[in-house]
Each structure stands twice: as C-alpha cells, then as structure tokens.
Amino acid sequence: MLYAKTRWKVGGADRAAVDRLAAELKLHPVVAGMMVSRGMTDAREAASFFQSGKDRFHDPFLLDGMADAVARIRLALERGEKIRVYGDYDADGVSSTSLMTHLFRRLGADFDTYIPHRVHEGYGLNNSAIDLAKQNGVSLIVTVDTGISAKEQVAYAAGLGIDVVVTDHHEPPEELPEAAAVVNPKKPGCPYPFKGLAGVGVAFKLAHALLGELPEEWLELAAIGTVADLMPLVGENRLIVKLGIERMQASEYAGVRALLDVAGLTGKDVTATHLAFALAPRINASGRLDHAEDAVRLLTTEDREEAERIAESLDALNKERQRLVEETVKEALALVAEQDPESRDKVIVVAAEGWNAGVIGIVAAKLLERFYRPVVVLAIDAATGSAKGSARSIPGYDMYRALTHCAELLDHYGGHQAAAGMTVHRDRVGDLRAMLNKLADEWLTEDDMIPISEADAEIALEDVTVDCIRQIESLAPFGMGNPSPRFVLTGLTVRDRRALGREGQHLKLTLASPEGEANAVEAIGFGIGGLLETIASTARVDVLGELNINEWNGVRKPQIVIQDIRVPHVQVYDWRGTREPVGKFAEVASVHRERVSGKPGSAAMLVREEGYAGRIDPDAIDCGLWAMGDRSLIPLNREARETDFAEASDLLIVSLPDRLEHLERALAGSRAERVYAAFADWNRDFATMPPRESFKAVYQAVVRQGSWESGDWFFLEPVRRKIGLSESLTRFMVDVFEELEFIRKQADVYSVTASPRKRDLAESRLYRARLARADVEQLLIYSNARQLADWITGRLAVQPNRMMEVLG
Ligand SMILES: [Mn+2]
User: Is the backbone of residue 124 left (phi > 0), alpha (psi -120 to 50) or beta?
Assistant: First the structure.
C-alpha cells in the first residue's frame, strides 16, 4: 500500500456520446471522452472548439447598450470633447485601459487615462476623481472593468455636466447607473451570447464596434487581462487567449516583449500559464505596491528603451512583492505554530501589525496550499486597531456564509465561497477565530480536509501516444474553466525506477501494462523523489497526471507527469541483501505515515528467537520488536508489550525464521499493509545439508580419535579440509552424533560409544530441523521477488480496505 496524497475524482462520460463524437469528428476516443466530460456532447459545438478563425467572434452590437456607447463616443470625437478613460489597478483594468489608449490614439481622440490608487482611493469611480475630471475639462468618462455599481458617482458626474459610458463585466447590482450607455454582458436582458468576458474583453468589443472591424492587433492585451482576471477559457475568451498568445510569440508591443524578456520567456512558446504566473503578477505588482499608471505606460509605449526600463522596474517591484509575501508567510507560519501547536484548528486565523494589506490574499492562498484548510489573514492597523482581512477556503466550507454567521463581529465583509474579504476590530479577532472554527466543526468532514485531484478520465497505457497527446494539446489554451487535461492510469507495473536531480528530489518511473511487453512509458514526478523506496519492484501502481511530449535529441516520446500516485494493494518489499534494514525501515515507514493524514500507522519488527542478539538493541528502537517463538510471538521490548502486533501497518522481517510455520503464524496474525522482507541474518551455512559421505568421513575420524576434550577439535581439521566443510557444519555433525548417542560427553570429555545402536540420521531432531530450514531457505531466499511477495501476501490476515476508506 502507498496512499495517495489527495482524493481522486475521475470524470465520467457517456460511452455512446463519446463514440458518436469520436466518429463524427475523427477524434481519438480519449479526446472525445474529455470533451464529453467537459459538457461538449454536441458535435457542432465540439467542432467549434477546434476552429479558431476570426469569424468566430460575436457581433459586438449584440451587447445591449453598445449602439448608445458608440454613438456617444462618436459625438465626443466629432465635437473634440475631452475624454477620460477610467480604469482599475489590477491586470484586467490595466490591460483594458491600455487597449482603450491604443483605440483612442487611432481615432485621434483628445483623451487621457485615470486609474485610482489602490490604497488612497480604492476600487471604482469616486467623487474626488470626478471633481478632478471636471477641473481638467473632461466632459466624457469611459469606464473599463468598473462602473456597474457606481450609480451615485455617475449621477454626481451628470450633476457636473460629465457624461459617463460604463463598460464593465462585474455582476450588476439591482439598480444600474443612469449613464449615457451601460455595456455589460451580464446586464439583465442583454442578448449577448457569451457572458464570461473580462473587463478587457468588453473593451475589446467596444473597439470592434467603434472601428467596424475586428482589432486583431489588440488581442494580446485582451488575452493578458482575460487570463489575469481568472475568466473561464471557453467560448470567446478561449478564442481571445488562443489568438492573443499566438501573436505574442512575435509581439508587436515593446512592452509585451520587454515583459517576456524579464520573465525569461523570450524564444519560448508562450502559454496561458505564462500569462497567469509570469506576466500578470508583474503587471499587478505595479498596482499593489506603487501606482498602476506605470503598467499602462508599459503596455502603450512604442519606445523600446522606456519599455525595458518599466519592465525592469515592475520586475523589481514583483520581486519586492514576492519577498514581502515570503516574509509574511514566514511570520504567519510562526504565529500558527505558536497559537495552535497541535494544529487542531480547522480554520486558520492569523493577525498581526505591520503586514501589507496588498499581499494578505496571496499569503492566505499560500497557507491554504500548505495546510489545506480555510485561512483568514488579517493586517492590523496599529493606529486604529482595525484589521483588514483576506480569506481563502476549500470546498465544503463556504467562507461567505461563514462570515455571514459572524456578521455581528465584523465591520464589513464580502466575497464568495472560496475567497472573501473583511474588516474587523483587533479585539474581536479571537472571537472570530472561535466562531469560524465552531462552524468548521459542524460543516467539515474528515474527508473534506483531504485535497481533491480531478481527472478527466481513466485511460489505458496504450492511449498514451504522441498522436493522442497532440490531439489533446489542440484543446489548449488551458487554464480557468478549461483545465489542463489529467488522467488516471491504473494497475501499471514498474519496469524501472530511479531518483533524479541533484538531491534525488524527482522520481522517474518506467511504467508498463502487465500484459504487454511493448509500450512502456516514462513517468516523471517532480519533487516526489522521496517516494523511491516506497514503491516495491512488484508494485502495481496507479498514477494521476498530465500527458506531454518529451523531446530529447530530436526523439519525441510521450511522458506522464505524475501529480499523485498510489499503490492500492499490500506491498512486499524485497529487501534481501539490504544493509542496515533497521535504519532504512524507520525512514521508509515514516514516509508512508506522512501520506495518511490523521491515520497514523505503527511499525513492528520480527526476529528469530535466537540469534538476533547483537544486531538490535530492543530498547533503542521506537517500534515493537517480537521474536518468532516455537509456540507464539514473544514481545521483546516495552513497545511490543504495549501495542497490538496485528495493528502494525509496517512490518519488517529482520531474520530468517527457523521454520516456515513460525513466520506463517506471525503473518496470519498481522494486518500489515507493507511487509519488508530483509532476512538479514541469513548466511550460506544456514541450511546446507552435508551429504551422507561427509557424515561417514567425519564419523570415521571421530572413531579413530576415540575420545577428546571439549574444545579440542584439532583432530577434525584434516578431514574438514579434505571434504571442504565449514567448521560450524562439522560441529553440527558432531552434535548429531551426540544426539544419536554415537558419542557421549561426560565432564567435558567426549568419547565414542563402543557398540552404538544402529539409527538413521533422520531420527535426529537437529538433522530434521536443518532439513526444515532448507525449505525455509528455498522459499524465502532462493525465490524471486514476485514469488516471495505472493507467498507473504497470501499468508497475511484478511485486512480491512483502508484504501477505500481514504478514497471514499
Ligand atoms: Mn476585471
């Protein structure tokens, strides 16, 4: 058994629908299955997923209010009115504002841009910004990525003689602003067929409408904001991002080129992941720690040197942001350890002075990743005692609902199931922690606390081909709403396994299907090299992961990138010939125990009754030590006396038993999930049985000697050398003679019996015991790993299927 780190959820697809889609679109069944499990059962809809022509974009005038917006802006252009673009400081807002800048430049408008300061002004339209616009002679404000909730501010502007065109994508409130035009696909009654546009997506549609043609050159900007704002990469968004990324390979913007360069992506194939994790954080850093205007300048300048200068300063800000996050995470971890040393809290709530409110959301997300629990991180303002908090949650715990239960404690709160924000006085943080944890006790089950890995389907190893993977990749870009395809493969044999990397931190497996000799596939698990010894050579492993194509020296081979791995059966580790099995056992068993949160297993070791002395100090090991006695197991240390042998999840067999029955009895009383077979005290002499001629030769030497003192064995040397026996085997023969009364020992003197009774060697108990050990040796030493594993597994007590408990 090797437990998975996560709960696996494998999507299902209706077989008939898959077959139909595969046939109609000539798709690999795996790809057809993926599409069906993602809800694309209709062949036409599915086919459109592969078509990314520019003609696939919807008519921008399908957006309710678009005609009014276009008319009002055209009027402003004709009259030469001063226009102000009002945006937002996040990456969506920045790309929207930049796109509008390019648009108004082309239209020859008299315009400028305005982005409120994150800390000093906060999100959205505000009256002092409108006052400023009035002072500057602005008569039309066009909002991007904001404005839908600004009913009051729009009315205030109207009072000052300023018209507002609102373009936004946020959820509209009950009452819309009375603006010159309101464009938002989520507006009630808006017939626009795709509701998931980002703020920059709406701005892109406005540009399309104003120009009367698709402004392809601005797809790059639209792609950045769409990915950064975590919009689902389906429908029109997927089109925007796919085409935008393609153009980005040779970007026409000095700013994008400079950003790719500082992110180390020049010359690489840009993916949606790069936008999310390399470009967006650098653009966001500007609004988080400084003013977002710099980022707008970066995306709108044509001056290469200016672009490089800003990209470098954003990169430095981003590094500063990362440093701040790391430092805050470190402090938060110390707080968690201090206030909850046994980590019993199901909801982590940490608060401190001096934390930057601009990064607490990222810190909360990092803590969630680490502990897989709901997290609230609060930055306390020392002067006012007010704490600003950011929360992240896991499925099963609705953070917004939880905060609603705590409403009396809070000054403000808002958000949804997975993420929320709040303001609370520092004196009430303790109550908040208690209340959130009380709710967690009611709402969260033990299973909820184990992370989930989702996979599209279970597939066969035969499906893992370059051809199939290419088809899967044609469904990119992957990201929000169109996740990277993951698959489960089960029951694979391990043909080879090794650790890679300087510290052996990565795991590389060569996996094959038990039936086929051909078709072995390599699998790589980053950061899980520590599992190397937990996978027995005889294991049948299940993996969950992504597929990709590994190109090396011009050869393209399919590869599985392992996200999680499990071995769902009892494992027998062939540790015969392993040096220091006791130390290694402690290490490997502890790696296993870390895999099962909340279900600690225990370990046990078995030795033969005699002969273990000197190898193991029973009091120096921290697990139970038992001897395989003739009649029963004999506890040899305190742990063994206090624990139940049957319950040990990990069992190390240190020595070779004297008789098979001894080991069989022990195994029958064990529910171990992992058995490590070391038989470390075996040596060549263990069960060698000298032939009868050798017994005869030694007996003749004994008879010739007549009598001798105990300890004086020198007379046996010539015969021992002549027939090539070890000293211990020679002594064994003498012991057999004594047992059969061919010789006698009195007061330390051996003498030959004058006329012994004729007896067969087999009458000797010693002789028979050695014969039995030959059986033991045959089975436990000379068997191959598979035979040994089958023998041991077949003798274990039937065990409860703990795997199923974990998997649910
Ligand atoms: Mn947005």
Answer: left
The C-alpha atoms of residue 225 and residue 311 are separated, in whole angstroms, by 17
167 Cα to the center of ligand 1, angstroms: 11
Compute the distance from residue 308 Cα to the ligand 1 centre, in Å. Answer: 26
How many of the other CB atoms lie within 10 Å of CB of 440?
A: 20
The alpha carbon of 224 and the centre of ligand 1 are apart by a number of angstroms equal to 11
93 Cα: distance to centroid of ligand 1 (angstroms): 6
CA of 147 to the centre of ligand 1 (A): 11
Q: Cα of 187 to ligand 1 centre, how many Å?
A: 15
How far does residue 86's CA lie from ligand 1's centre (Å)? 13
Quick check: 277 pLDDT over 80?
Answer: yes
Apex CA 597: angle with CA 595 and CA 601, to 5°?
A: 75
Work out the burial of residue 302: count CB atoms within 10 Å of its CB; fewer than 13 is exposed, 13-18 middle, 19 or more buried: exposed
603, 649 Cβ separation under 8 angstroms: yes
Rounded to the nearest whole angstrom, what is the distance from the C-alpha of residue 307 to the centroid of ligand 1? 24
Q: How far is CA 540 from CA 297, 535, 566, 786, in A?
A: 56, 9, 9, 12
Ligand 1 centre to CA of 222 (Å) is: 11
Q: How far is the CA of 146 from the centre of ligand 1 (A)?
A: 7
What distance in angstroms lies between residue 319's CA and the mean position of ligand 1's atoms? 24
State in Å: Cα 90 to ligand 1 middle. Answer: 8
Share of the chain above pLDDT 70, in %: 97
Record the tokens describing residue 416, joined without a space. Answer: 């949804």
Which of helix, strand or coil describes residue 652? Answer: strand
Output the CA 287–ligand 1 centroid distance in Å: 14
> How far apart, in whole angstroms, are the C-alpha atoms of residue 649 and residue 589?
9
Q: Render pLDDT for 203-260 as a digit per residue (tens, 0 to 9).
A: 999 999 999 999 999 999 999 999 999 999 998 999 999 999 999 989 989 999 999 9
Please report, for residues 381, 384, 386, 475, 599, the alpha-carbon distance to residue 427 in angstroms, rounded to integers and kept in the order given.
12, 11, 9, 51, 37
733 CB contacts (<8 Å, ≥6 apart)? 690, 694, 695, 698, 699, 725
Q: Is there a contact between 2 and 592 (Cβ–Cβ < 8 Å)? A: yes
Range from 167-171, 525-529, 627-631 carrying the lowest mean pLDDT:
627-631
Q: Looking at the DSSP assignment, which residues form a beta bridge with residue 350?
A: 377
Q: Output the CA 231–ligand 1 centroid distance in Å.
A: 9
pLDDT band at 287 (very low <50, low <70, confident <90, very high): confident
Q: What is the pTM of this model?
A: 0.82
Three-state secondary-structure class, residue 146? coil
pLDDT score recorded for residue 268: 85
| Spacing, Cα 199 to ligand 1 middle (Å) | 5
CA of 486 to the centre of ligand 1 (A): 28
Give the model's pLDDT for residue 808.
38
Highest mean pLDDT among 87-91, 154-158, 635-639, 669-673: 154-158
- pLDDT of 802 higher than 50: no
Output the CA 423–ligand 1 centroid distance in Å.
Answer: 22
Q: Facing residues of 746 across strands? A: 749
**Distance between CA atoms of 535 and 592, rounded to whole angstroms?**
10
Ligand 1 centroid–CA 676 distance in Å is: 56
Mean pLDDT of the chain: 91
Pairing, β 140-143 against β 571-574: unpaired
Long-range contacts (CB closer than 8 Å, 24 or more residues apart) made by 332-338: 332/363, 332/367, 332/377, 333/367, 333/370, 336/367, 336/371
Task: Kindly give, in sequence order, each residue whose CB lies less than 8 Å from that of residue 409, ignoring residues fewer than 6 positions away.
Answer: 424, 428, 431, 432, 435
Neighbours of 223 (CB within 10 A): 33
Measured in Å, residue 81 CA sits from the centre of ligand 1 at 27
Q: How far, in Å, is the centroid of ligand 1 from the Cα of 242?
A: 19
Quote the ligand 1 centre to 249 CA distance (angstroms): 25
Cα(218) to ligand 1 centroid in Å equals 17
